Amino acid sequence: MRRDVFVSYSQPDSDCAFELVSWIERHGIGAWIAPRDVAPMSDWAAEIIDAISAARIMILVFSASSNDSPQVRREVERAVHKQLRILPFRIDDVLPSKSLEYFLSSQHWLDAFPPPLEPHYMRLCTFLASALALPVAPVSAAAAAASDTAAMPSSASSASPRDGRVAARHAFSPQAAQLDQIDRRLAHYIGPVAKHLVRRAAAAAADYDDLMRMLAAEIDSEPDRRAFISSCRQFRSQGT
């Protein structure tokens, strides 16, 4: 089952979070929740990033506890960066802290009080069923044909731009020490998820400039993006 819903919560609210997931999945909607869906021996941060990237909606179990959780804040930051729709499911009558208010102030809230929680779970499932049933914008036949044509080489003997990019990527081999230094610089802006993002980008980048563009895109602030790129220039000569 496709897991369209990512559930973010703090540990003291785990009973509510897993009960919520049970309701969601009984309605035929796939949900991702840690630690249940983290593969054994895997990189926890990498699994969370990939799950957020694959989801269509984040449900934030919002409480006084999650309000103060650095992990919840990092997950919300990544969801906002990925332009993921966030629905706070508020189980405590509290307002978001300043660090979360910046990301959640314009979001729709679903208040899950007073108890019991069951009617609120039902309202949430009804909302999700409606939101996830929205049709995907169709691609016209002409646009699809144009896309296919653009992806094809002009002749059997000529290389496409994609072929050139693949060849360049294979020639780009940054050193581990270089990536560690870039990781530390990026972590200053986005936290510990930087390590996973740096390794993933290095495997796909055609060259150092391409790597910097990919990683800088993970930083929300334009001045911070420029500062990150500037600070990494000194590492360029350490890998090719």
Q: Give the overall shape.
A: elongated
> What is the distance, rounded to the nearest whole angstrom, between the alpha carbons of the first and last residues?
41 Å
Bin the helical content. Answer: 40-55%
**How many discrete domains?**
2
Strand order of the largest sheet: 2-1-3-4-5
Low-confidence stretches: 134-169
Rounded radius of gyration (Å): 21 Å
Overall pLDDT metric: 80
CATH class of the largest domain: Alpha Beta
The CATH homologous superfamily of the largest domain = Toll/interleukin-1 receptor homology (TIR) domain
Sketch the major β-sheet.
Answer: 5 strands, parallel
Range of strand content: 5-15%
- Please count the beta strands (DSSP E, at least 2 residues each): 5
| SSE order, one letter for each helix or strand | EHEHEHHEHEHHHHHHH
CATH architecture verdict of the largest domain? 3-Layer(aba) Sandwich
Number of helices: 12
